[in-house]
Every structure is written in C-alpha cells, then in structure tokens.
Amino acid sequence: MNARWLLGGVLLALLTACPGGGSGNIGGTVSLGSSITGQSLQIDSQPGKLRRTGEARFVPGEVLVEFRGGVSLQSVSSLRLEVQGRPVELQQVRPLGLANTALYRADLSEAETPALLAVLRSRSDVASADLNWLEQPMATPNDTLYNLQWHYPAINLPQAWDRTTGSNSVVVAILDTGVLFNPSNANQSHPDIGNRLLPGYDMVSPISGANPFANAGDGDGRDPDPYDVGDEQSTSYHGTHVGGTVGAATNNNQGVAGVDWTARLLHVRVIGLLGATVADQVDAILWAAGETVPGLPANANPAKVINMSLGGKGPCTTARQNAFNLVTSKGVVVVVAAGNENDDASLYSPASCANVITVGATDFAGARAPYSNYGARVDVMAPGGDVSKDLNNDSYADGVLSLGFDDQTQQFNYKFENGTSMAAPHVAGVVALMKALSPNLNTAQALQILKSTARPLNATQCNRPSGNDCGAGLIDANAALAAVQGGSTSSFSLSTANTILTAQPGGSVNVPITISRSGGFSGAVSLSLQGAPSGVSGSFNPASTTLDASTLTLNVAAGVPNGTYALTVRGTSGSTFASLPLSLRVGSGTSASVQGTVVLACYVAQGDCDLNLSKAIQVNQGGTSASYTIPDLTDGEYAVLGWKDLNNNDDVDRGDYLGAVVDQSGNLVAVRPGNLQANFQLDALSDDLSQLAPGVLRSLEQSKIK
C-alpha cells in the first residue's frame, strides 16, 4: 500500500470531497492485505530428525491447541481447515488437563504437518497451537566400565545425610521411560528398588501411523502399569537408572545408594520406544502433581518434586509452559536436564522453559562435562560423569552408577552412565531432602538456596568465555540443607506474567519484570538481556533498581527472520543472580486476524483529528476480514483508519498493522456519515511515524487504550 496518507503534513491536502451528508453511520469492511497474509503464514523452519531413532521429532498430523476463553471443547470436537490449498479435518483426540486445551490429529505427513500451525494460529478462537513434539531421554549411548558413586561426595552428600535422609511425606515423580518393577512378580523387579514405589502410570498414548502402538511397545495405550518394556537400543531402561539416583534402596547392604533414602517415588512413563510427545508430557506433569486430567484416574499421591531427564531442540511450547506454571504455583518443584549437545541450553526444551530448575553436568574433576549444554538458561550444575575419562585412576570410566538391566544376560545389574539425565536426579533428590526439612519450599526458594550455596565454576572449569555459562555452579547438598535449617537466605527472583511473546519484524513488545525479594534482600538488581539474535535488542527501564519492577522493551528489526528465539533476562546483585527465560516468536505464529483492530473515524479539522468529534470501535470478529459500523457520527468529513496493535504496547509503531480508506492511487479519501463503502485493508507498517499528525496518533492510541 502507498503509505503517503500517513504523513500529517499532507493529510488535509489528500482529502477529496465525497458526496452524501447528514449525521449517521460509517460502515464497511476491514481485511488483511495479501502481503501480510503471506508473511504471517510462512513456516519458518523444518523440524529435524530424532538423534537416536531417525523418526520425526514430532508426531505427524498431531497438534496441541489451546482455545480462547469461552470456547467449549465439546463444540470443537473437529476442526475443518484449509491448509496449503486443500481441506483438512482435525479430530479431537482428547482434552488435556489444561483449560481449553486439547490434542488434535489429522491425516497428514511429517512434511505437511507444520503448515497446520499457521492456519490454526490465524483463527480468532485459538490462543496457541504447537506441534506434538517427540523428545528423547538425555542419556548418552550405553557404555560399560564406569566408576563407583564418586558423584555423591562431589556434592557433599554424605555430610548432608547427617542432617536428614528424607521424609516419606515427600513424593518425587520421575517422568521417564518407566521402571523395572512389577509389584506382583519379583522376577520382573530390580532387587535394589526397595518398597518405596507408589502406583504410577503409563502415559504413552497411541500415535498416528500404521502401528499406533509402535511408541508404547506394550501393545496397548495408557494404563496403570509404568513398566519399562524397552531395550538397550531404545530406552536403555533410562527411567530405572534415573529413579535409582533419586532414591534407590539405601542402607540395605546391597547395590547402590540413592540421594534420598526415604522419599516415595512415583514413576510416570512418558518416553516410549520412539520418544516422548509433548501431549503425553503435559498430561503426566499435571497428573503427577495431582491435577485432574480427562480420562485418567486421580493420582492419590501428588508429587512435590518432578524430575524430567528428557528433551529436544526446540522452543518451550505454550501447553507445556502452562502446565509448569500451574503445578509450580501449587508448590511443586520441577527439575529438568539441560541437554547433551555441548550447545546453548536456551535452544532446547524443556530446559528453556520458565518455572523449572535447569541442570547442567560436571565430570569427576568438577568441570563442565564436554557434552553438557551451557548458557544463561542453566541454573546449577550436578555430577553427570564422563565415560571417556578415568580421572581418579581406578581403572573404571567416570560414569554415574545406578540401576540397570542387561538384555543379553536378562539380568538386573548396575550401570555407569553419563549425561545431564544423570545430573538432574541429583538435584531432584537434594530438593526432596530440602522439602523434608521445609515442606512448603517452593521453586523460587529452592532455586535461590541451591544457587546461593553452589560452588561457582570459573571460565576454565566451565570451558566457556565466562563461568556464568555454568549457572551458579556445582550444587552443595550439605550447604543447601544447612541453609534450609538456618532459615531463608537473602535473595531475589525474576518473573513476568507471560514468558511466551510475539512480535512482527519491525515491531516491539514491552515485558513487565517483577523482582521478588526474600530474606531481607534489598540490594540493587542490574538487568541484562542474553541470547538475543542479530536484529533483536532490549532495553530496561530502569536497568538497575532497588525497586520491585522494571520494564523490558524488545525491539525487533525489520530484517529479523520469522522464527522462535530463546532469550534470557539475567539479574545480578553482587554474587547473587536470577534468570528469567523468555520465548520470542517473530512473524510466524503472530495472529493474522483482524480481531482487535481499532477502526477510527477521524473528524478532519485543520489537517488533524478533532478528538472530541472523532469516534472509534474495536473489531471483535475473527478471520482475515470483518465488517464494521461506527454509529452516531456528527455531520462532517472523516478519514477512516484502522490499526491493530500487534505487540500490544498501546503505541502506533513499526510492525503493527495499519490501513485506511484510500483511492486507487493510495491517497486518503474523505467519507461522510451514511457512506457504507468505507472498505480498506491492513498492511504491516514500516514507515517512519515521526511526522504522523499528532491528533491521528492520539486518537488511535486512546481508542485502543479505552
């Protein structure tokens, strides 16, 4: 569109007389320009393949859809869409345990599935839509010849056991591949698990394809039996190993010890032979925490700690973030693995999600293990091992020792494995010990204690330009429990109402940051933005403060490619720091709908808008076009403009959608009350607005705010 009509200096000159007269209404149609539709529906990337199985990293044809308030899931049991020029019918598979959220399935291939997202996100009744990602356990491939449990002295755990060995009132959920335990058959149970397991659940649901039970591997769908039916190549009996680190039978004269000797364990099987879908994970998170999940029996033993030693490259999906937000608001602490790619953890999920404790891995020497992910999103480090080394010269590779099974001999055994999967349950176990001493300890409090008592890694130990890339450092279990016994520590945390943000290229978005202080902390907090891609910049107001709030303004340059970017807000005050992960979705995924558009009838007076006589309405109808009527206008000439505040900052700025009633040359046309031909389209704005008539700006922005 020709944008000359935007310049205030020529506003009056471009007006032309229009027949008609008398007071009345102005009506017409507002629609999205074709260029905008093309940009908004562009799929910005193609998912890769699974690292271990070669299958798709998401379930073909499946999407997780969150509807806006007021939409009944019963009314959307099926959805009929047009995707890339052909009709597609989505069938609701099941509602999830989140408000207005359900899993849908269509007969689409892997290559066709991503196009669903843009179409769904353009609907006015859809709040979010994500692929049903299929994720993997974080453990690296099996090896033998590992070291003994050097990893417990590494975090001063033996000293911590003098303070507490846990409490059976604390339940730790392990969301993983299941467990090698059959309560009715000792021959199918690892002898060192003990008697502390609670009734868990198998959440691995059928997936689309020729064999819907290929992922489950047990011939059926969900059931109350979380037994791990996998093998060395698919699951490595990963959940049993992880669960053993959290709480193997201890002080029983056989096998290995667990971090917590007393807590009860709740195994929830989410990882099948192909991986773990996000839909199954969301239900598992909620069920483990005692929330109601449609179609599942109630969990009589809600967890206080959840361990998730799994993940994959990609953003934190809306449904999973909502699940984390819900359970952590009720006091559950979620611990996740940072990932094993020697890469920035902010690029992986659930490591990049908010309201979780993200754990990187160290080796025998206390340095970052060479595979461990790093970066601003890592909160703390814990022993994960490195089977390529024998730093203590005991003739065994330096792995983490826990429970296992040998497929060849069909014997239960003990295995040394390495990975951030092995690091995370150390932290989950220590958090369980902390909750034994302080049952109401929440995520922010637990994280601040772990950080404030950790032993920092320097740049050399972290093998990065800065030791900050290894979070607060290696956890110290004894110091953490001492801090719990001694009362709250002086610290702070960062939060915001919405960690998943959207913006258009050329736009901006404001993020209010809340600084929560505890233990008498009153120091100034300095804020910085990390992980921003080229073209995305952030400024804080204020950047350093002793107050409890600041505002981050993210500016997205016009040339920033569509995509989802993981950012981290870091707050520092002396040696104390806190992190807040954000997910910024640029272009693709923002709403390509006219819903929320302000349509302004600007009463033209001396080349500007007369605020007293101008009127505006807001379009509530969804879709790419909608009719509107502006009633009860005073007789006179009006410039009709439309504005969609895409970044929701109450400012008319670059990246928003703007439009006006213009002639074929792009010149602004005057209309009078009673003229029902005031049709126009919205296009993305990239022009300099510095000369826009002040009255036009005020009228648009005040109309939006009202």
UniProtKB/TrEMBL annotation:
CDD domains: Peptidases_S8_13 (cd07496)
Domain Peptidase S8/S53: 168-467
Top-level taxon in the UniProt lineage: Bacteria
Gene3D superfamilies xrefs: Peptidase S8/S53 domain
Location of the region described as Disordered in the Swiss-Prot/TrEMBL record: 212-240
Active site: 176 (charge relay system), 238 (charge relay system), 421 (charge relay system)
GO BP, sorted A to Z: proteolysis
Protein EC: 3.4.21.-
GO MF entries: peptidase activity
InterPro entries: Peptidase_S8/S53_dom (IPR000209), Peptidase_S8/S53_dom_sf (IPR036852), Peptidase_S8_Asp-AS (IPR023827), Peptidase_S8_His-AS (IPR022398), Peptidase_S8_Ser-AS (IPR023828), Peptidase_S8_subtilisin-like (IPR050131), Peptidase_S8_subtilisin-rel (IPR015500), Peptidases_S8_13 (IPR034176)
Keywords: Hydrolase, Protease, Serine protease
Similarity field: Belongs to the peptidase S8 family.
Protein's UniProt name: Extracellular basic protease
Designated gene of the protein: bprV_2
